[in-house]
């Protein structure tokens, strides 16, 4: 039994669609656990000051993770590892030891320095929590969470090795275990330690996140050894590639940090509402976009390294077509069913009606940018696989700057011009609700995401001619089906409103479920009438039973 489990975990997947659906399959479990986690948060704490502290405490550790850990991220290290392994395993092991040691010493050093600086950072970054007991709690929680970037950074490094070997099973299990750790903290530790128990759960989840990858790495002789004999020439090569990426991924994190800072001076619960909505929209983002972008990276890299530009573009077109095909209907359903989604997942315990309506409105605004957010990930991976880190750096800095700009602009307009406030509140049906200004945060994020996406598309088409035309047919077909899907779903909400008692969890869930299923069915029928090829490709990939994919030999580049 143990042998079968190990063989299952160590299976190699090489097809883009099968690998993407495999990652998506596990991402569904991970996101289901994340939804359970958020429901427990909502039930125990609601959109409260305590939960605001918890989410705010993540901001500094998360910034360290996306900046320092991104120096040895999967996107950066996979091409180096493929190159090293193609030469010899010993050379690859020396490279791993050297890079890991340099990274470990750096991130520990940074976390120690930040540990002492956190009181000053809290005062500067989060003025809404800069006094009294809130300040003390936020400092304590942030300091504990400094263990998170270290553990997740190590796991991220290990993930480069498992991804290089196409061991997607192991990599896909990590976030599942991470959420299990957090849920353990909510159920068993928060009743004893309060919000601090949630933080302890995060650390347990981070330990599980890194621990699941260790057996494979040890068994294949790639477990890194700390050494002071660091090959700085190799480190320099990695840094020249990774430093632009570090700035690239840190730019959106800075934008989010600014949005949280703005929300910290709003009414209590604003940060929680913003975070809940962001987490809900990240479910399809993780299942669809992250899965495709992760699966595409090693495949795109091999095509580009081998000089097969045609296959590189074909894979990118296929990835974009499927991301759009899957994301656009989800976007429409999230907009139409936003209230049902929020009430079903979060509507319990301390999570009141005001919290529900504000979170639903924020979710709808986030959902409008689901497609650009999804394709941004794929464009970034494509540029990285081609060795181009400058373009993602420039675009991300600009789009993140737009998010910050719009955050301040929309907040000012909402506070200063009653007409603008009335228009937004009426549009999203939150008129006269306290704290509706929080809607300016996802609105700013969506505007910035669309601007970044448009720039990426223009630049990619300019560099890889012929990319746009094949994708546009998918855009037209998916948009048409999504409009029909949304219209039918909206109409059936009224029908099922008379059948189910929507004042109960079961009733609101069944109303949304059946309305959505009928809408999806109508959308699929239309796509079949339009002879949409993505429908057949999705069915074909699922029909292959990707979870039973045959173990294949490695490509020559990784032999």
Model description:
It is a single chain. With 559 residues, this protein is mostly helical. It has a domain at 48-265. 81% of the residues lie in helices and 0% in strands. The chain is built from 23 helices and no strands. The protein has helices spanning 2-9, 16-45, 49-57, 59-68, 74-87, 89-125, 132-144, 147-164, 168-193, 195-211, 214-219, 232-263, 270-305, 309-336, 338-346, 353-368, 370-385, 390-416, 418-427, 440-463, 468-497, 505-529, 533-543. Helix 15 (338-346) crosses helix 22 and helix 16 runs parallel beside helix 20 (440-463).
Describe the structure concisely for a colleague:
This protein is mainly α and 559 residues long. It has a domain of 218 residues.
Record keyword descriptors for this entry.
559 residues; mainly alpha; 23 helices; 81% helix; 0% strand; globular; disordered N terminus
How is the main sheet built?
none
N→C terminal distance: 28 Å
Q: H/E order of the elements? A: HHHHHHHHHHHHHHHHHHHHHHH
Q: Kindly name the structural category.
A: mainly alpha
- What is the average per-residue confidence, as pLDDT, rounded to a whole number? 87
Give helix % range: over 70%
- Radius of gyration, in Å, reads 23 Å
Strand content: under 5%
DSSP, total strands:
0
SS element count, helices: 23
Name the overall outline. Answer: globular
**Regions with little confidence, pLDDT below 50 for 5+ residues:** 1-6, 8-14, 546-559
